[in-house]
Amino acid sequence: MNTRFVAAAAVLLSLGAGGFAHRLDEYLQATIISVEKDRVQASMRLVPGVAVSSMVLASIDTNGDGVISEAEQRTYAERVLRDLSVTVDGKSARPTLVSQKFPATEEIKEGLGEIQIEFTVDLSRGGPERRIVFENHHHNEISAYLVNCLVPRDPNIRILAQNRNESQSFYQLDYAQAGSSSNPASLKGRSTIHGSMGAVGFASIFRLGMRHIVEGTDHLLFLLALLLPAPLLALGSRWFGFAGVRESLLQILRVVTAFTVGHSITLALAALGLVRVPTRPVEVLIALSIILSAVHALRPLFPGREARIAAFFGLIHGLAFAATLEELGLGRWERVAGILAFNLGIETMQLIVLAATMPPLVLMSRTRAYPLLRIGGALFAGFASVGWIAERLLGVHNPVDVAVDIVAHHAVWIAGVLFLISLACWSLPNVRNKRPPPARRSPGRHSSVSKHLTTCRRAIESAGVERAAPSNGCPTKSGSPVKPNTWA
Q1: Is the pLDDT of residue 37 over 60?
Q2: Residue 344: is it exposed, middle or buried by C-beta count within 10 angstroms (0-12/13-18/19+)?
Q3: What is the C-alpha to C-alpha distance for residues 481 and 463, in angstroms, rounded to an integer?
Q4: 0.70 cut: is pTM over it?
Q5: Under 8 Å CB-to-CB from 333, ≥6 apart: which residues?
Q6: Res 237 pLDDT > 90
Q7: Other residues' Cβ atoms within 10 Å of the Cβ of residue 165
Q8: Measuring CA to CA, how many Å separate 479 from each of 76, 240, 463, 465, 473?
Q9: How far is CA 247 from CA 64, 65, 303, in A?
Q10: Are 247 and 446 in contact (CB under 8 A)?
């Protein structure tokens, strides 16, 4: 079998650095798929953890003599393939065993033995766009699965999308193949996106961009955390009051536009091969960007400069977007239209998410309940980013991905509940902020607001007493405690 399988499987197995130290009770099954013109080649690497090795070994060494014979190896390999479900374009396909290689029983008992199984799936003739679905049910009660696809060597084959469930026991691969239609001339045109890719190919990459935002929760978490204080004014080291509907919407527009410009620049440069940065540093920097935006949501770090921060970190996020586009194996000119389709997909889904989340945030920011949402959201973003840094930089396994995925999978319900809560808070007189909001946003944004807030700050510093909210909006020496509807 091609040596690329060995290298790729090694990469998969190394994803959980130090994996065997914490996967004692799992049966790790990593599968690498390679698509060719008339068949699919696949390589499986199965590693039983120490705690489950005896169970796996009992199903391999059926006579219990401590030696895995050739017949037992083949019988077990065929059993593994029977536990696989493979469909091609909706039709069932049968995997064919090519080879198997087993370690000694002692290695399996120590959790170090790697079982290697190679198989192929023959492909019947099909249309220009094809779909392969791979499901693994082997020992699903104790197994952890990993599945990935190699970039095709055949230039006429182009990967369009990969979809997995949370456990990766389900894997769906969509790809386009030139030369598989009854009209070769038309497919030759489809093999290039530039000018003649056609609506279906463009739409596939557009959907890939949308799906990347949905699945790339770290990108959305950065943007949402940065927008949490968008409806508020900053005074000193605290968030202060409501900035007004118009100014809040303008601030959201500034941040989103700046983020879009930033990631569009590096997406284009990286996708065209003009910039290359290793994946791991990019992923770590993305996690760091989330920490920064989360801290800013708690206490102002760069009030009035959120758009600049969004643009800067947008450059980093764009490199991650380009890595996904690179997996499609597009030619240089194909990438021009591919970048457009992918970026449009990203922006469309990004706008959908913002349209669902920003109205309740702006509405609730005018109530005394908003600090709970802002602080809670910032702490969740910080928790997720710390976990991602530990995992991406140090290889420390943690449950952050599971927690974030649970929230992401219920995002629609969460957005609906958030909207209902915001309406309820706004309708309650004792929760709604009754103080007239300042006319403009933060210091440095408008001169009149800057002078007003500077006067307020000096009053606080000279008075040396607790803050209160008089009719003019400035804290004064009243001796009364802070009103909850004044300070955010």
Answers
A1: yes
A2: middle
A3: 14
A4: no
A5: 192, 193, 194
A6: no
A7: 11
A8: 79, 19, 10, 7, 16
A9: 75, 77, 14
A10: no
